[in-house]
Amino acid sequence: xxxxxxxxxxxxxxxxxxxxxxxxxxxxxxxxxxxxxxxxxxxxxxxxxxxxxxxxxxxxxxxxxxxxxxxxxxxxxxxxxxxxxxxxxxxxxxxxxxxxxxxxxxxxxxxxxxxxxxxxxxxxxxxxxxxxxxxxxxxxxxxxxxxxxxxxxxxxxxxxxxxxxxxxxxxxxxxxxxxxxxxxxxxxxxxxxxxxxxxxxxxxxxxxxxxxxxxxxxxxxxxxxxxxxxxxxxxxxxxxxxxxxxxxxxxxxxxxxxxxxxxxxxxxxxxxxxxxxxxxxxxxxxxxxxxxxxxxxxxxxxxxxxxxxxxxxxxxxxxxxxxxxxxxxxxxxxxxxxxxxxxxxxxxxxxxxxxxxxxxxxxxxx
Length: 366
Prior knowledge:
Blueprint (H helix, E strand, L loop, with lengths): L4 H22 L7 H8 L20 H23 L4 H15 L32 H8 L33 H9 L6 H18 L4 H13 L5 H15 L5 H4 L8 H14 L3 H8 L6 H16 L6 H5 L4 H16 L12 H9 L4
Helix pairs in contact: 1-3, 1-12, 1-13, 1-15, 3-4, 3-15, 6-7, 7-8, 7-13, 9-11, 11-12, 11-13, 12-13
């Protein structure tokens, strides 16, 4: 199904901004138990933004930071493929993640030429140069200078740091989002449940942007998942999430039966369950961040799904108003829409088209 630019822009904005809102809602209580959340904030727990990282509310974490750099890498891979004729997309994404590593105060790995360290515009956004509890697995893997692959895993981690960042890949028209996302998650997470959960999320987002209903999109993603070696754990977690949702809105204690979300398959299952039972975007996000677990990642993935499903118009305006770096997130979302659904950047375009030239300058193909 073809997607027009306006529809794509709404769904991509919804996905990235919805994910960031969920991230920001869950950030202040990420390491708290449900008992502690209720003791501090009442029985309903988190009902809006709370202070975190020196902000009164709306602070994003590494989940949103890495999602933005995934979007950057996705655009740059397209530009390299179309304008240089050859591209190994995971290598381009590895460079994007190394730029995120630089924003966290780490040196560019000595083993890799430094030409890409400060290229493009995103790495120069001052607001991204903040440490927001970056995942040890992501940092450790990237600091080695080596790039993990599905065939040659860099570790045996299945932490949720792979799945929580890959939603933008679902919008990469003309690619296999499952395969691309799995390869990109494997850069830092070597366990099948760490990268196959990422593949399933990107495939799900890809179905949603083309207009599929959520259940149908999940069927399509799980069909692809079943074809992968080592899929059993991720598929079982997704099945549990869908089964719990089939019984209606779960209480937080019931939601926790799916796990804490610290690992990839659990984070995806929790988010899918929350998205399936959500009355609206706000409702789904608040369910996603009130449990004993990785609340910012589950909130982020839930927001990615609901935002892609309903579009940016469904994301609560009051939560967008207080969101950190909302303008940067919106710009990246629009650039992603323009690159894959707009005019020219992926193929032929008129010379001196300032709009296209701007994208090519901002997202160099390496």
